[in-house]
Amino acid sequence: MTNNKQTVIAKDLANKKLKVVREFAAPLEQVWKAWTESNLLDLWWAPKPWKAKTKSMDFREGGFWLYCMEGPDGTQSWARADFQTIVPQKSFTAVDSFCDENGNKNADFPSMHWKNEFNSISSGTKVEIEISFTDEADMTKILEMGFEEGFTAALGNLDELFLNQFSTGAEKVVS
């Protein structure tokens, strides 16, 4: 199975959107689980050497994921994703916000609306993400905080997770 492991991030400042396209050499069912189950998200979501740690997750429309990214020095950055729509094995939308460890949103940072679509392709699964912002300044702030580099690294972590599962037979982690 081959795939295009390039993360393509297109910036549309005029429409206040980021579009991310990434292919994974893994079946749709496994990619979906990796994006929607906290035990798997914790394995790849944070760019190394940071780690993602889930405090709670309720993956349903109206539910939310509360997690932090923890740096090697113990620094924690909390965020929550409020799920709005879910079409199993196809797509989900969420509003992602910075917050405190209790999930109280931090108004000093912009919220982002994520639309994630998953499609089976001959080489595995294609994930297309559209991230919308309220205004251009919010989008610029997120980019200046290192979104592009951080998210690209995280998606690389997901490739490693799939590679390790397929090469070691540990796919039971995702099944």
Describe the structure.
The protein has 175 residues and is an alpha+beta fold. It has a domain at 48-129: START domain (Alpha-D-Glucose-1,6-Bisphosphate, Chain A, domain 4), CATH 3.30.530. Helix content is 27%, strand content 38%. The protein has 4 helices and 8 strands. The chain has helices spanning 28-36, 38-44, 136-144, 147-168; strands at 8-12, 17-24, 51-57, 64-70, 76-87, 91-99, 112-121, 124-132. The protein has an 8-stranded antiparallel sheet with strand order 1-2-8-7-6-5-4-3. Strand 1 (8-12) and strand 2 (17-24) form a beta hairpin. The chain starts with 7 loop residues before the first strand and ends in a 7-residue tail after the last helix.
Task: Describe what is shown at a glance.
This protein has helices at 28-36, 38-44, 136-144, 147-168; strands spanning 8-12, 17-24, 51-57, 64-70, 76-87, 91-99, 112-121, 124-132. The protein has 175 residues and is of the alpha+beta class. This is ATPase.
Strand runs, count = 8
* Widest sheet, order of strands: 1-2-8-7-6-5-4-3
Q: Which outline best applies?
A: globular
Radius of gyration (CA) equals: 16 Å
- Would you identify the regions where 5 or more consecutive residues have pLDDT less than 50? 168-172
Strand content: 35-45%
Protein name: ATPase
Domain Activator of Hsp90 ATPase homologue 1/2-like C-terminal: 26-162
Pfam family, one: AHSA1
Family: Belongs to the AHA1 family.
